Amino acid sequence: MSVYPVIMCGGSGTRLWPASRPWLPKQFIPLTGARSxxxxxxxxxxxxxxxxxxxxxxxxxxxxLIECQLAELGVEAVVLLEPEPRxxxxxxxxxxxxxxxxxxxxxxxxxxxxxxxxxxxxxRAAVRDTLAGARDGAIVTLGVTPAEPSTAYGYIRPxxxxxxxxxxxxxxxxxxxxxxxxxxxxxxxxxxxxxVAQAKTLMDELAVHAPGVAEAARAAVAxxxxxxxxxVLGRPFRRAPKISIDYAVMEKTDRAAVLPxxxxxxDVGAWDAVLAASARDGDGNCLGGDVxxxxxxxxxxxxxxxxxxxxxxxxxxxVVVESDAVLVCGLGASQAVKDAAAGAPPGxxxxxxxxxxxxxxxxxxxLRTAALPLWGTVGADPGNGGFREALTARGEPHEPRRRARSxxxxxxxxxxxxxxxxDGPWLQLAIGGYDFLVRHGRxxxxxxxxxxxxxxxxxDDTGHLYEHAFGLLATSALHRAQPDEPRxxxxxxxxxxxxxxxxxxxxxxxxxxxxxxxxxxxxxxxEAALAWEAAGGGxxxxxxxxxxxxxxxxxxxxxxxxxxxxxxxAGWAAMEGEAGLVEPGHQFEWAWLLxxxxxxxxxxxxxxxxxxxxxxxxxxxxxxxxxxxNALWDDLSVRDGVARLWPQTERLKAALILGEDDDAVSAAxxxxxxxxxxxxxxxxxxxxxxxxxxxxxxxxxSFYHLLMAILELRxxxx
Length: 718
Known about the structure:
alpha/beta
């Protein structure tokens, strides 16, 4: 009969704020040593799985953290990801359903990822002592002999019996101090929350006491989708009642048993517990980072390496420094840190805007003094007038190629800066970049190629609707900046005529590639048509904008739900399944465009649809990080928890134009985190679900998104 250790990675660790955050909870942080609590737990339980497998159950947002930390250990595990948190009963049920389907008689060893147990062998020996009872149908909890009366833990009253494993007489909640002393005197044990049972036993008990949990877990495991080396539990998991395993089973079952153990154990649930579990100096201090303690004792200080922290003449204190928050806490009040965490602003490092006006001023300064100068110098090629494809986080050129969309977007950015009256050589840069695009990238039929070398040699001559739309947008901005220059009107007319070769016979336009009927390319065409109309281009542009608007209102957007569909068949019927994804960024982008169009036409369908689009987009906002994620499933649950930069700009624009100031301030804070880079004026592109960023160059294509969001902010009177 095999043993399957199951590591539960739930919980946000609010009492360990500010080190522990929703995107980087305490179990993934080194708290008492060089490795995280999760990694220590893996190494502690892995030897138990001689014939079984290690299972990890966690939220989908922590996928990257788990994969990385397992790889550092060189340990393989079965990882089950919850599409949303449903408390411990559902998480344990999912693990047991997987084990039951794999090996029905196997024993599950359920442990928490964030506990500190220094004596790993004593823990494993205790687990082995429970196995006989577990195989006989008991659910055996490890009850820890208390080191002291504590109000931080629940307690177990063991029943009578001569065997090491005893029946449970009662589970009791966390007591007050007086009752805790009485419990210890009466021989009660701390409830460690670790227990051992056959998977089928737990599933049988769940079926009796919480059938909705058992049914949802089995269905979720059956419908789990492999994603790399992990399995994302199926949608039925979301139907599981939200209840803890204690309330669902342990307080109701007649199979509960307890093995008293005496090894050192802590759930490391607060800063006083972290200090108690850590190595200390002769004064009882635990100091991490560039820290100095003078005439101080029994203090815990943690700080990043680039910040010097000194404490003088203090004792019984925790000082925790992060890049965006500092905690100073008396150790006796450690349990109350969760109240400070609840009152702290969400998000991570970056400016803490409280008003739209504060955000406007910060972004305006960043644009004028950092972004435009950097991309107008390092981001431009003085040899041939083209624009760089990307810059590194340190502001160095990176361009394996030059895409037509990048050149056109940058020409739009600099032409718009000139039209808006920003001081600088922006018009000359815009013209030079557009000339490079036309000189090297215009096909004989008037469309643009897709990609070139840095010297202009064509690498991909495909003429995409998407690229063409940005050529139209660039010429609209050039016309705004030089209204008396006839070239730009002529360029716009030439590009509009070339567009006709991409027209679809049942309406709209065809894109090149596997998905020729799509909303995204039309969205940018819509944007370009509105821009040309606003620049004085005349009736043909208004007609093009109206054509795309009617296609969006009639085909792209579900009138009831407000969901924007991305891909369609030749009759413009929405495709489902993998092609039926929902992108919050596009929800916001279309909302902004249709609100503008409705205001220009006096058509109430514009603002009404914009509001529905916006509301759906908000379903994809992660409030902990204050960012919009990349994609949702069609039931609006998270499909891809990575958050690229551009959806944040579109959320900000939509919130502003719809008068949602609180959302706009939140979006501005979230977006600002992407701009915290070694070289001011560049940006991060992808935020992982854990709140960290992918290390990669800043794509120039994001500047267009940033500029438009900042211009929407600048529209506020100051």
